[in-house]
Design goal:
Blueprint lengths: L1 E6 L3 H11 L6 E7 L3 H8 L8 E3 L2 H5 L2 H5 L2 E4 L3 H13 L3 E4 L8 H14 L3 E2 L8 H6 L4 E10 L8 H5 L11 E7 H7 L5 H9 L6 E7 L6 E9 L2 E9 L1 E2 L2 E5 H14 L9
Parallel strand pairs: 1-2, 1-4, 2-3, 4-5, 5-6, 7-9
Antiparallel strand pairs: 7-10, 8-9, 10-11, 12-13
Helix pairs in contact: 1-11, 5-6, 9-10
Length: 278
Amino acid sequence: MKRVGIIGCGSIGTQVALAIDNAKISDTVLEFLFDSDSDATKNLTGKLKSSTALCFSDFSDLISSTQFKASNLVLESASQAAVRLFAKRVLELGKDLIIMSVGALADDHLLSDLLASSDKYGTNLLLPTGAIAGIDAIRSAKGALDSVELITTKNPKALEGAPFFEKNGIRLDSITQKTTIYQGTAADAILNFPSNVNVASILAIAGVGMERTKVTIVADPALRYNQHQIIAEGTFGKLDIKLMNYQAEGNPKTSFLAILSAIETVRSASRKNFRIGT
């Protein structure tokens, strides 16, 4: 039985909580909801029908609670800042941890630190594939890869709030046609678009690393979905995958597939005797 806690009650956290509450994920119980915005946890609690999960907005209160102590799986679906603040402590306190804001792990020191904590305390660090596909193939071909590129195309509204625009003096409403706005490394893309290209981080971790993974970001006002294309070449052959993901309801920055990936990761974590994929 997985006793699940959720850090971050936005689009992803809400849908995972509802999936547990509606018994769409078997052998799971929702223990707690945590968000620094107490209104977010209250709004989510109001949507739950059967769960008795308690809400927290202070991390110290959370980790001293009976609900946290009872949990054995924590889902982070808040932000890269939340990963930096809370992830290590969660692992040290004996909880398996699912990280959705994988962009935080572009920091090699943080990733190494979390892996060391996971080893030391016998906990598992789980990184869902999120809004992309082909990660199994990238992992399998890791030693046979020459190049990996991610081309992400989104409506400008789905890129709103990215530091890149203020840094370069670009107004979103000035983008009136399909425009390539960024080309660079995954490491740099994650700094410039921290809430928009988490997929670049999971792709880089699975493959050739942050500096060798190339990222192109295209803004297209006519687009009504989030598109990701992965092109990888090497001695194994060539991989070319294109995904056209519907956006999560109420949040254009998040693809619906990312929510489904989070739900499936929680489901898989509760099934120790069955695994699909590499």
